Amino acid sequence: MATSLALPLAGKVAIVTASTQGIGLAISRRLAKDGARVVISSRKQGNVDKAQKQLQDEGLDVTGMVCHVGNAEDRKTLVTKTLERNGSIDILISNAAANPAMGNIFDTTEEQWTKIFDTNVKSAFFLAKEVAPHMQKKGNGNIVFVTSIGGYQPFELLGCYSVSKTALLGLVKAMAPQCAEMGIRVNGVAPGVIRTKFSAPLHTSTSIAEEVLKQVPVKRFGEPVEVAGTVSYLVSDDASYVTGETIVIAGGMQSRL
């Protein structure tokens, strides 16, 4: 019993996408510290190798592989190899996202729009669809989509990206009822501006950062580790009666559609 309390995710197998840096890396570290066997992934082998070594050197049970979530074969391989190595999949954290467009939303090209939605929404759903039958076998699975505060209050310079994150809020709600029948809980987290390489345009420019922080009551940017704990809670038994919800982690920023 003591071991279970100390390691709430002991015996669980987790996949985390886009997990070699930033929020994804922090989530992977936290899930592994909480007892899960974690499979990390990224588009580039070098990034996977670096993150895997870093986490393994910390004594964590982590393996990694290349996965471009926009590629159906890569998604299938990620699931297949995880099952071969670990025997099951209990947790999926869908964190991969793309944003090739910044500026006026009307300047977004059709190609950029397609890229953003293919990566941020379509790929997230189809990876969850790939994983769900394997979770159903155990009747105790968890899926968490990493959306964004921009899904509630769109960032002026990130219009298309923000809309894609709004779609993920809807995906959580749409999937939850059917997944509940399969023994799977589906939730989301909506980070605010977290200090990562991905969000650098919002916090490295002094003028932009000042404008963004006007919307943040705690008057600072978040750190990846501040997202990871909430994700670990959502996939643990402590959240066994929570599904179809998205938890905002944004320092008090407004979060109503």
Automatic annotation (TrEMBL):
The keyword Oxidoreductase applies. InterPro entries: NAD(P)-bd_dom_sf, Sc_DH/Rdtase_CS, SDR_fam. Keywords: Oxidoreductase. Belongs to the short-chain dehydrogenases/reductases (SDR) family. Coiled coil: none annotated. It comes from Priapulus caudatus. This is Dehydrogenase/reductase SDR family member 4-like. The gene is LOC106812233.
